[in-house]
Amino acid sequence: MFMNVAYLNNSTSTVVDNTKPLIVTSCGNYRVKNRSEVVTHRPNGRKDYQLLYIASGKGHFFIHGEEKTVSAGNIIIYLPDQPQEYVYYRADQTDVYWVHFTGNEVEEILKYYNINLKNNILYIGTSPDYQWLFGQMIQELQLCRPRYDELISLQLRNIFVLISRAIMSAKKFSSTSEKEVAFAMHYFRKNYNTEISIEE
To answer: What's the rounded Cα separation, in Å, for the pair 36 and 166?
Structure first.
């Protein structure tokens, strides 16, 4: 299994900090390839918030005693003290990003961005922008450069903005067309200095 994880101040202990509106405490990426399964079981949950993004493959989440298979393009949100139980199987080739966060205005911030706290699972699409932003948060947490804690909270807000856009535009566009446009834009940004044919 590929793992790329990072923690605020390089501390793996759970952080509950109410001194600021929004604080990212850890972020990571798992790609399940060689282990038969990866199991998370926290009967009492955690003291912070957690958001998971399924970039590809799928995960199996047990919410209120019911198993839900969650496919690519969905986020799962756990509130403080909410029981957590989920499994990733090798056969599903799961690629998942996650972030833990805390703060004194988290609930208000999530509501502002139209993120319904009563609905644990939400489809937001498979834009590469999500993966890039998660990757940036992981990198900042690993490098610990000056004011990195401020930057990663802004990057998480950026993810919230994209989630809010996805929610608001869900009725206007089909998920297929949005996905194609997002991947095309990402491809052009990455390959601006190479010759691109119409077929490509």
So the answer is: 33
* Terminal CA-CA length for the chain: 31
Give the separation between CA 155 and CA 190, rounded to whole angstroms.
20
CA–CA separation, 84 vs 140, rounded Å? 27
**pLDDT tens, position by position, 139-176:** 999 999 999 999 999 999 999 999 999 999 875 555 55
Per-residue pLDDT tens digits for 39-58: 999 999 999 999 999 999 99
Closest residue by Cα to residue 152 from 90, 92, 89, 103: 103
Three-state secondary-structure class, residue 79:
coil
194 phi/psi in degrees, rounded to 5: -115, 155
Rounded to a whole number of angstroms, the CA Rg of the chain reads 17
Which residue ranges form the domains of the chain, and what is each CATH number? 2-168 (2.60.120.280)
